[in-house]
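User: Quick sanity check before I run a bigger batch. Here is a single chain. Can you write out its predicted 3D structure?
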Amino acid sequence: MLSSSFFQRWMSGMAAAVEEEADRLTELDSAIGDADHGSNLRRGFTAVAAALEKEPPDTPGGVLALAGRQLISTVGGASGPLYGTLLRRTGKGLPDAEEVSVAELAQALRAGVDAVAKLGGAAAGDKTMLDALFPGVEAMEQAPAAGAFAAARDAAESGALATVPLQARKGRASYLGERSIGHQDPGATSAALLLRTLAEVTV
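Assistant: Done. Predicted structure follows.
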């Protein structure tokens, strides 16, 4: 079972991972976006970690809901609303309990990913964060609980790499048309980082 402290460690781990990868994310974004993805996520997840340390919620859903609110209020551009929606909707989909199961997290994350797709009007293959999130959550749903997070990480990372040959059909990168081909999508890359961080958290 996964406690609220597990989810707090996930979010603080993501803050550390974004800090480490911010320059790479911005470099990817400079090719097909506004060159601010890394700096925006760094600001957002730094605020998330600070808020959770100051007043940690006592349920897993509360942790993710707080994280989502912080991202929406502190991150500019598209990534704040998208990541904020992902975490808030996932948190809302979890049982109001002190601990949740891996299967319950997978189900809630599916709802969160679907909410992101609806908000952005994007689908698989559009060269967005969904190209990492869709395969990631599907792998988490299908794998045994003990290996679910590792399966999600691997599928999400493969999905992010698979955005390289795609032409962007949504977001800032879509304005480039065929010039977006040959670049890895920064949103898919950071989404894969979110699931990689989840796989690294100790229960």
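The longest helix spans residues 4-32.

User: Great, the batch can go ahead then.
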